[in-house]
Structures are given as structure tokens and as C-alpha cells.
Amino acid sequence: MILCITEKPSVGADIAKILGAEVRRDGYFEGNDYCVTWTFGHLCELKDPADYTPDWRRWSLSALPMIPERFGIKLKDDKGIQHQFEVIERLIKRCDKVINCGDAGQEGELIQRWVMQKAGCDKPVERLWISSLTDESIREGFQHLKPQKELESLYIAGLCRAIGDWILGINATRLYTLKYAQRQDGYGQNNNVLSVGRVQTPTLALVVNRQKEIENFVPTTTYELRTLYRDVTFTSNVKAFKTEEEGQGKLKEAAESEFEVTEVTKKKVKEAPPRLFDLTSLQVEANKKYGLSADETLKTIQALYEKKLTTYPRVDTTYLTDDVYPKCGSILNGLGYYQEVLKPIRGKKLLKSKKVFDNSKVTDHHAIIPTGMPAQMLSKPEWQVYDLVARRFISVFFPDCVFDQTQIKGKAGKIEFKASGKRIAEPGWKSVYDWNNGGDKQAKDDVSDDAKDQEKSLPEFVKGEKGPHKPFLGKKTTTPPSYYTEGTLLKAMETAGASVDDEELREALKANGIGRPSTRAAIIEILYKRAYIRKQGKSLRATDAGIELIGLIKEELLKSAKLTGIWEGRLRAIERGDYSAAEFIAQQKGMINEITLSVLRDPSNRRITQVVETAKPKKKASSKSSTSKTDK
Fold first, then answer.
1. What is the pLDDT of residues 474-485, one digit of tens each?
2. Residues 6+ apart with CB under 8 A from 5
3. Could you write out the three-class secondary structure of 398-417?
């Protein structure tokens, strides 16, 4: 008998149906020489400190840092989980071979292997590795099962991540709580826990630092010489003035002469379609357009994956592999709602861009795309997220958008001016977003006034023409950076705090982003739960407790997004087999030793006096919650 272990009961039912295991038992399906069972996400977890020694049950500075000689796992203390584990354990003893059908990613590998390890599995194990849950994909996956040893480095990376988070999260939380939290009762018991973690603390630091930058911002005002000619505003090349009085001389000089057009330049400019979605960019877009939180978007795209409508969601690449290209035509044919917008590319060979198809940019899974299965009976958030994914996929097969870009140069006396504008000549891929409103109104509303000006089409100008004009001094006041939203915070986590708009640079910085795509939403939720951040409209604000916590942490190792990004880069290198797991764990041990000594030597009597733990108000979930996969 062959045993298949999936990560969720719903996936187990899908796989059982395809394999012919149609008899339902307690905790599994059986039939056709197969048994199909499931976990409920994490059945096992790393042991708690008290599981290693009773001395670690009590919170004490003298016990820190706590580092077990060998880390171990245990079953979660839940009757339902324990019952399901017993089912899996019995089936493993009965079977001849196990097929690991967990989610095809680092966390999924860890979940399944811990269960098999706890159950004492000594049977041969193969791996089902698929990017969608369509019947076709599942059948194809069973025809190309992988030996478990091929994914050893993936499991090791997941194990290092879990151990690293345990070492830092548990020790640093106890350390900072015991050293700096105000005692709350008359018995010396400290109920005011200061939660510190490898990912959550540098993420909180991003929010706090941005907030301080805004609060300390001092605006400056300058005056720019401009002129109005034929209802078009031209900007001079004269350096901006600190006061209006300073600019009066140049203003008068410009007014004494007619305006003359000295140069007219026109050129065609092409704009390629936006890249396909990885999880983070999808969360960013859904937050920007529809106000969906990172967690809501993750749960929604997970639900769409389980409904077989989109591919595996927890990905960090925006590329597809070459072997997906032959399937794209049939996927497009399956997108029934979008057939009208697809008409311009019907009967033509689909475009194949290197910005879309590149084997070297894909490791475990490709970008998120539709599967081509009919989308029916979707909730509002499900449709919004599905529409984002579908239009993005369709657009990459359309031609570039072509703009007519015009630059006009002129002068008034010796003072030079210029103005520019552009007009869409060939909409190309933009027609995909314009069609049927495209859910794109919000995006258009979000465009800045300057950007809107650039979109304006200029009237026809002729070199040498002259005429009256109205020079004036335009006031410009600097503005502070914007507060983070969930979307912009996700981008900052992805790039370790760097402000990046360029897509290619963003791709390059992903290697050292903080957290994984699948965990970033959960980290933000933890910060809400700990009452370290709150929402004000769409903006994120640090609470007094969050500001105080970051203020008392002097150890840059704990709160630097760049340093955390380096650790994440090493975890990814372990996943590729390019870095030593033992060295990574040794670094984490050395780091917590260094942090512990630094805090214990602090002679100050700093305290955080109040932490009020209030959870962020929840919206009604649009689908069943997927398993929470989070860094500590």
C-alpha cells in the first residue's frame, strides 16, 4: 500500500479522487492500493524551553541564553492534532512507501518531514511537487515524483529558520522582558512581555523610524521661475530661490521679452507590460487598489489556489519557466470572462518575452498565474484578487504600450525654459486594464498631479514661433515621506528597507529581504496583536509601546533590516546548498550571546511601563483561514 500525506483535508480529498481512493475512513481515504491522509498544517513544533530542563520553566536572567545541545520536536498539545497524528502513525506502519504531498515549498517540506520523523517513518519517501491543484497538474505530478533526497537542502533551510527563530525569539523576548519591562503586580511577577523576534523587530523598526522621520521633518519652501505660454506651463533652468524677493529680478527679466520656441523634440517611447505577480507584489497591489490587508490577500489567493483557479501562491519570483509557454494558449482560452479583451491577440503567435519566461529566475515555483479553470461563485475579495492575477497574466502577451513623448524648449531673453508631455499612441497592454473598467479606477485616482501633467498631450509647437507669455514664481514646499501602508511596508520588507521602484533592482534585492513571502503578512499581524502598530486609515502608525521598545533596543543586530536581510540571504543560500547550516546556527548562537552580554551590561534603569495588548479589528474572512506560517 502507498500512503500519501497532504497538508490539508481538502487537498487530500482531491488527490484521493484522482487516485481512486474513494472509501472514506476516520482521518483518511482508502482504495486502489492507496491511502490518502493529511496534516492540519503544523502538527509538530520545536520543544519549549521547559521540555529540555525544568530549570528553563522559570524566567530568569541567569538562565540566559538558553541553547539546547540538540533541538527536538513535539506534537502540539491539541486532542484533534494528536488523534490525526495517531492515524498517520498507524498508516505509516502499514504502508510500503510514502508520498509527501505537502505544499511544495520550504514550510510545507518542514511540516511533513517533522510528522514523518515523529512517527518514526523508515519507509521509502517520494515527493509530489506541483504548482497548481488542477486534476491535470496532480496527474502530471504523480508521473514525475521526486526522490526525497533531492529536497534535502530545502528541509535543512526550513529547519535552520525554525531553530534560528527559536534561539533569537525566545531568548531575546525573555531577556528584554526581564531587563526592561515594568513589573505589573505585587508578587514580582512580570506580566508585561516585550515580544522580540528576528523578523518582527526590524519590521517594527522600519515603521518607527519612518514615523520619527515624518514627525521630525522640517519643510522648506523654494520658488521656481515658470511661465505660461499658450496655456502650457514651462519651467526655467534657473536655480530655485529661497524667497520670492530673490526671484523678482529674474521674473522681471523674463517678462521683458517674448517667449520663443527654440526646439521641438518628438520621439516614440515604449513601456513593457508589468511583471507577473509574486506573492508580495500581489499583496501590495491588492492593498493599493482594494485596501485588502496582506493577511487577507494571502488567505484569498490561498483559497483561489485550493479552488484550482490560480497556481501556488507562496512564491518570490515574477517569472515563468519555458515549459509553461506551450500551455499558455489553453490557459487564456479558459478565461471565459476575458474573451472580449483577448480578441486583438487571437490567431497570432503568443509573445514570449525574456522578462516573463526565464528558467534561470525560477527555483521551486513560477509566478502566480491563472490555471484556466472556470472562475465561478467567488466572493468579492476572491474576484478582486483573481481579476488582478488574470489581467496581469493576459497583459504580458500584448505588445508594449507606445507613447508619443514631446519636449519643448524655449526662452524669454536669455532665460531658458522647457515643458514636456506625452500621449498614448498605441495602447498595447494598457487596453487590458482599460477594458470593462479593469478595476483600475483606484489606480488612476492614486496618480500624483505631476504624473497626470506628464500624461497631458501638448499642443503643436513650431520651432521659432514667438508670443506673449506670463512668467510667475511657482511655490514649492518639500513634503515628508508618507507613512507606511501595509503594501509599502511589504515592499520595504522585501528590499530590507531600501526604497525601490525599479523592477529589476527590486528582483536583485529580494535575496536579502526580511522574512519570506509567505510569512510577511503574519509578521504584520503579530505587530498588530502585540499592540506595537495600529492602523489609521490606510496608514500604519507605531504605538507608544512600539516606539519605546525600539528606543530601548541598542543592539543593531536585532533591529536592522539590512542585517536581518543578510541572515535571510544565508537561509536562501542554504536552500540552494551553497551555505553551511552548521555555520548559520553557530552565528545565531554567537549573536544571542553577544546580545545577552550587551543587555546585561546596561547600567541604566530604562523601563517600558505599559503595553496594552489589543488585537486589530478583524474584517469578516472571505474564506477559511489557511495555516498560519510565521517567523517568531
1. 999 999 999 999
2. 37, 38, 39, 88, 98, 99, 100, 101, 102, 112, 115, 116
3. CCCEEEEEEEEEEEECCEEE
> Do strands 125-127 and 97-101 pair parallel, antiparallel, or not at all (unpaired)?
parallel
Positions marked catalytic = 312
- Cβ neighbours for 136, distance < 8 A, ≥ 6 positions apart: none
Among residues 552, 417, 556, 419, the alpha carbon closest in space to that of 497 is found at 556
In the chain, what's the furthest Cα-to-Cα distance?
A: 97
Q: Where are the alpha helices (DSSP H) in 371-516?
A: 380-395, 430-434, 441-445, 449-455, 486-494, 503-509
**pLDDT of 210-261, one tens digit each?**
999 999 999 999 999 999 999 999 999 999 999 999 999 999 999 999 999 9
**What residue type is assigned to position 114 of the chain?**
W
How do residues 77-91 score in pLDDT, each as one tens digit? 999 999 999 999 999
Reported in sequence order, the residue ranges of 123-220 that DSSP labels E, i.e. its strands, are 125-127, 146-147
Are 342 and 335 spatial neighbours (Cβ–Cβ below 8 Å)?
Answer: yes
Determine the angle formed by the axes of helices 79-94 and 106-118, rounding to 10 degrees.
Answer: 70
Q: Do 571 and 157 contact (CB within 8 A), yes or no?
A: yes
Only one residue has cell 536579502, namely 512
Distance CA 297, CA 280 (A): 10
Is the separation of the CB atoms in 297 and 310 below 8 Å?
no
Please state, in angstroms and rounded to a whole number, the distance separating the CA atoms of residues 459 and 457: 7
| Contact (Cβ atoms closer than 8 angstroms) between residue 259 and residue 229 | yes
The partner residues of 263 in beta bridges, in order of sequence, read: 409
- Higher pLDDT pick, 563 / 206: 206
* % of the chain beyond a pLDDT of 90: 81
Residue in this structure with the C-alpha cell 500604519, named with its chain if needed: 540
Beta-bridge partners for 320: 357
Which of 58-67, 84-93, 503-512 shows the lowest per-residue confidence on average (mean pLDDT)? 503-512
Q: What is the mean pLDDT of the chain?
A: 90
Rounded to a whole number of angstroms, the distance between the first and last alpha carbons of the chain is 39
Least confident of 43-52, 265-274, 342-351, 605-614: 605-614
Instruction: Assess whether the previous peptide bond of 65 is cis (omega < 30° from 0).
Output: yes
Asked whether the beta carbons of 43 and 10 are under 8 A apart, the reply is no
Q: Distance of CA 517 to CAs 106, 113, 297, 631, Å?
A: 11, 21, 12, 11
φ, ψ of residue 65 in degrees (nearest 5)? -80, 150
pLDDT of residue 464 exceeding 50, the answer is yes
Please give the grid coordinates belonging to residue 84. Answer: 490525526
The residues pairing with 310 across neighbouring beta strands, listed in sequence order, are: 370
Average pLDDT over residues 277-294: 96
Quickly list DSSP for 514-569. Answer: SS-HHHHHHHHHHHHHTTSEEEETTEEEE-HHHHHHHHH---HHHH-HHHHHHHHH
Is the separation of the CB atoms in 155 and 113 below 8 Å?
Answer: yes
Confidence of residue 505 (pLDDT cuts 50, 70, 90): low
Give the C-alpha separation, 627 to 351, whole Å. 37
| Mean pLDDT, residues 302-324 | 95
At 269, which helix (H) or strand (E)? Answer: strand 259-271
pTM value > 0.85: yes
| φ/ψ (deg, to 5) at 399 | -65, 165
Give the tens place of pLDDT for each residue, 105-146.
888 999 999 999 999 999 999 999 999 999 999 999 999 999
215: three-class secondary structure by DSSP: helix
